[in-house]
Amino acid sequence: MNGTVIYGRNAVIEALESGVREFNKIIISNGTRSDAKIEKIKELAKEKGVIFQFVTKEKLNAIVSEGKHQGVAALIAPIKYLELDDFISKNKNKNSSIVILDGVEDSHNVGAIIRSCVCAGIDGIILPSRRGVLINSTVEKTSAGAINHIDIIKTNSLVNTIQRLKENDYWVIAADHHAEQNYFDIDYTDMNFVLVMGAEHAGISKSLLKLSDFKVKIPMLTNFNSLNVSNAAAIILFESAAQKYKKCVK
Amino acid sequence: MNGTVIYGRNAVIEALESGVREFNKIIISNGTRSDAKIEKIKELAKEKGVIFQFVTKEKLNAIVSEGKHQGVAALIAPIKYLELDDFISKNKNKNSSIVILDGVEDSHNVGAIIRSCVCAGIDGIILPSRRGVLINSTVEKTSAGAINHIDIIKTNSLVNTIQRLKENDYWVIAADHHAEQNYFDIDYTDMNFVLVMGAEHAGISKSLLKLSDFKVKIPMLTNFNSLNVSNAAAIILFESAAQKYKKCVK
Hey, of A238, A240, A246, A247, which one would you mutate to test binding to chain B, going by the most B CBs within 10 A of its CB? Predict the structure, then answer.
């Protein structure tokens, strides 16, 4: 199996629990102190018939070349990307929302954004094939398993993707710190939307900005105007979540 | 000088511009392609009389042991921590707000939270001396220079610190996912507050939870309840910022 390595107790538990990933094997380093999470991994693995392998700490370090593995890793099938048209038909009878990352380069940021997306009820995430990062072990780890709870789409052309979404009644919201409108002045509750977040330094490509229906900024209370992209995404996504939440409990 | 290494073009520019850090020298690796940012660093350094040193890429790699230096680093004086009582008197004639990180362990998270704090107009940040991370090179880098625009306090006892803040009319807000109240149901605009964020996995210590005046949660739209701590902080801090912003523009 041409696999992906995931590592860390929570990431392995999440992947086992989600049931959407095919496991090759779970690898635990000799001398890993057992705790409630390790026991849970063992139990879930037995239940699902996944093989265990005990290796030396040095071997596990070699398998997990970067990041903290906390004594446990797993080899699993690579993530399955969804086709855009399948995503659109799957979500056509509800208000649907999706996030585009236009060249975000830091795997930690991508993982954290996926986590926020799942918590905020976003249906999917779109990554360009040739700019920024795709799903890798660090994204898996920093997403804390969220990756298994959201549809992931990759595309060769964000312009074509956005046009296709627009044809299917998605409104395009671009996060742009030059915008005039504030992110909290939009009603997110009654439309399909795609939120476009730009790369860490370059922001959103001009070609995508042109296609947007709304441009929104996050107003700062000081002259220091430099939020981390995953934090900016969280702020906007949870404004949309809060609006939806308030509407439901009314 | 017992110094700190900062690295990355933006971090060096920010530190030079802020004027609050004493520079030992700026180190640029031979063959670093000049661009607008490198030119700006050279210009600011001349203006402020800071020495330049050109070194091989290998030497710079050795100085910056982790992280991407983008060809430039600087040796600067360590951050000056402020005393709590000095912070309190400095801010006593305004509505003041401060964030406590109760054992946050990931330097990237601490850096990103400091960035959000500065953007959201928070006056200070409190770190415990013996749990979690203090200011290091990674925090400096991921804060994108925000560290130079906020007061940083370290403390041996968060319990004593919170009690002292309470005596000085600060309300204590704890972010706790077991809370009943939602973060957007609090009026942040008319009080001094201290927001307490817990460690990545363990959350907030019980002793601190007991001292809190409000416990707030971020309601999720799905069963996946696991936000990155820097994203959770950003969501709450920018709710407070949005409330203040709306009040001002009214």
Answer: A238
Q: Does the complex come out with an ipTM higher than 0.90? A: no
The nearest alpha carbon in chain B to A243 belongs to B184
* Residue pointed to by tokens 């504030």: A182
Name the strand (E) or helix (H) holding B63: helix B57-63
| Residue A225 to residue B119, Cβ atoms within 8 A | yes
Do residues B196 and B208 lie in contact, with contact meaning Cβ atoms separated by under 8 Å?
yes
Under an 8 A CB cutoff, do B116 and A231 touch?
A: yes
DSSP symbol at A143: T
Please choose, from the candidates A154, A160, A149, A162, the residue with its C-alpha nearest in 3D space to the C-alpha of residue A123. Answer: A149
Q: Please tell me the predicted confidence (pLDDT) of residue B2.
A: 57
Q: Of the residues A76, A93, A111, which one is the last residue of a structural domain?
A: A76
DSSP letters spanning B96-121? -EEEEEES---HHHHHHHHHHHHHTT
Residue B95 clears pLDDT 50, i.e. is over it: yes
**Which mean pLDDT values do the consecutive 10-residue runs of chain A (250 residues) have?**
79 87 91 88 92 91 83 90 96 95 94 97 96 87 90 96 98 96 97 96 93 97 91 98 90
B1 pLDDT higher than 60: no
- Give the count of domains, chain A: 2
- Name which of A182, A227, A245 is nearest B219 (Cβ-Cβ): A245
| Residue B226 and residue B194 share a domain | yes
Shared domain for B50 and B169, answered yes or no, is no
pLDDT at residue number B28? 93
Residue B228 belongs to a domain with what CATH number? 3.40.1280.10
* CATH assignment at residue A42: 3.30.1330.30
CA-nearest residue to A220 within chain B is: B119
* Residue in B121, B184, B201 closest to A221 by CB: B121
Interface of A with B in 189-248 (CB under 8 A): 201, 218-222, 224-228, 230-235, 238, 241-242, 244-246
Residue-range definition of the domain harbouring residue B26: 4-76
For every residue of B103-170, DSSP letters joined together read S---HHHHHHHHHHHHHTT--EEEEESSSS--S-HHHHHHTTTGGGGSEEEEES-HHHHHHHHHHTTE
End of a domain among A37, A53, A76? A76
Which spans in chain A are helix H? 9-18, 36-48, 57-63, 84-90, 107-119, 137-142, 158-167, 206-211, 229-249
Predicted structure pTM score: 0.90
Q: Are B119 and B43 within one domain?
A: no
Q: Is A112 on the interface with B (CB under 8 A)?
A: yes
Q: What is the pLDDT of residue B250?
A: 67
